[in-house]
């Protein structure tokens, strides 16, 4: 629907109104192409993936779920550029890019404000932008008659552009980071001037890492006798809208303004989405204000983006209110708008409201499309409400003349399989085939994978045979699912036979296939065999990845073949894969448990020297290992090494050493270490308190303990510190010192204090000092604490035996006065 430019409410009202409601991050790309007309990326449903099925990817804990997905490890520009990881994961990536006069991408100190628009950035996204009344009160001007340039920057790149020799050569030069020199940069500069705008777009879209694409964009913009075409700016924004690189998107938008490039609402929409993905919601909302200052009027695609963001942030009420205001300023919703709301209802479990909206859409002048029905069907499939799914399919045909097609059945098959409803998915597969639809190998594999996850290997194999009968040849994903299923059920020999059958049927196993088999072997206690298969990987034309090494390493560790596990880690690092700090710690811990602490320290040093991710926990584990074998000198030496490696010890590290020093009786050294810990600003934990109290009470250093507790409590309060001191003193028989501290706990008179008093009374009774136990009971009564009656009866009986009749009668009388016992008549 077109935007009514003569709306009396005014353009200022529109911007202020729409900006108020934009308050939640975008976490998915559903309906992306509909939100931005002209986007070359096709619309995708969040629970379906009908694209290509990559090989050799996946996680061993969830093999082939989603048909293989893993983070990318990409290389970028040569020279000092070092990108590892994908920008989609939002993780921290080290980069050091000096290439011409190019600035770093996503610099924290760069562009702190959108100064072109005099709009200050604010990263605090938790608050509201302003009250609704305030927003509605800011009506500044009426909507003007500015022409909407809907065709500006339409991103459409022909597939042939990606195969163009110039494009391929530029991409090759970009990847030559290790051999980069001014000569190669000159070649790239020369090629850049020969590229047509669609070819520059193809280079940007060909980069696996979006940061590399953004670096290339910046570099090219600074070259002499070259200027980016409008389509290049929009392509770059399109790429960034799928990432969290919001600062980069903002800078590209600023460059467009500086270069005099006309910005359509779509350009601002891209920036809005990127801010939303990174969770900077206030900044995303302020994009609407930037549009106003730039004289660009909001259109339906921007409003749909805002509604979708609100929906994904579970702010459905605000999304509905946004819809009402949107219509007030003349922007009428379309099917994408309603589909977003339907998804919002489904995400909140309000399926009845979603179905009601589908029913009402024709009366609103916007009949539902298949996506509307698919969204509701997906929710019903998750809940296994198959009857209602069938009713909804009937409604598609009867009410809106939408005939279920192959996509419909693929949707149902995938959603049901994903949520473990393989039988129902198989039922729809049979129904689809009965209607003449051809279910592809992706649909079959989804059901097979679901069967295998449930251990139903026989049914999975039957379905594979059915695939052959239908002329659908299983691929590597299908076979890998079955191999994983065999391994899950402990049938490793069957898994190996299936791997051989893959070769016979002309299907080459990939890394995920072999990793599944190795995982099964390791869990069956055959880690050495798994190691041999991995060593022979080159003979079978597959390459182990980090997950493969991790699987075998953990298998060797579980079988206590620690030397072989360490050797495998060395081989892993040599081949360019680095274990995580958690994996390293598990191996170090196992070595220490076998009292091979010296080997653990050597392994730690080796990992550190080779650039592995070593942290304070790894050092603390080695220190704990030395403390367990009583080698405190070596433990303290590792502590010194931590400072040299700039790995600052934490409170756990100090607590381990304090306990070891206390066990040995070197209390003065322990005191120095505690003082050093406090001076570094570390906060003692409850474990630290218990350790210090236990060791100092063990050696009778009560005065030193009390002085130390005052310092520790000044840093971090610990309610039961003195309770523990009294109980530990009782445990070690130092009752006199324990009673001196009784006043410190009776100030609060809580249930914990009552239990501590009972411990002291029982300790006195164990030494047959009933009078002291009686005194403790009297002090409890004075603080309105009622001692344990049975314990006091024992005290009274002992007092009678000791000739203390008056005290015995007085003790029982206090119970009578408080109504705890009834006096004898």
Structural class category: mainly alpha
Number of helices: 43
Task: Give the overall silhouette.
Answer: extended
Distance from first to last alpha carbon: 95 Å
> Tally of extended strands?
2
Kindly estimate the percentage of residues that lie in beta strands according to DSSP: under 5%
Q: What is the residue-mean pLDDT, rounded to a whole number?
A: 80
Characterize the main sheet.
2 strands, antiparallel
Gyration radius, to the nearest Å? 35 Å
Proportion of residues in helical segments: 55-70%
**Which strand order does the major sheet show?**
1-2
Low-pLDDT parts are 1-150
Question: Care to describe what's here?
Answer:
There is one protein chain. This protein starts with 10 loop residues before the first helix and ends in an 8-residue tail after the last helix. The protein is an all-alpha fold. A two-stranded antiparallel ribbon has the order 1-2. The radius of gyration is 35 Å and the shape is extended.
